[in-house]
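Entry: Clumping factor B
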Amino acid sequence: MSTAHAPAHPPTPTGDQFIEMQQSPQFQELRSRLLRFVLPISAFFLIWYAVYVLLGAFAHDFMATKVIGEINLGVILGLLQFVTTFVITWAYVRFANRELDPRAEAIRNQMEAEAPKA
């Protein structure tokens, strides 16, 4: 019978180290990259959603335009809202995996290396 060992916990940085890291160039670069992705994509999606809602509220005839059989523009634009959500999610995951996660891991590793040993 083997004995299970508790996983070793990495050293915990102090509050001062967290504050210092937040002011570091590598953390500022991480935040900047995140904001350069999130803000434009969020603005795009909110505008796209608002246009859809406004069209539904004020452009009834336009939204009721038949495209294929009984399928109208309102249904197609509504389904495109879902497609847009999935595309944005996919793009963010890809962006985070490629751009954010390696930088965040480097910051975490640096903080753990500089943390006081227990």
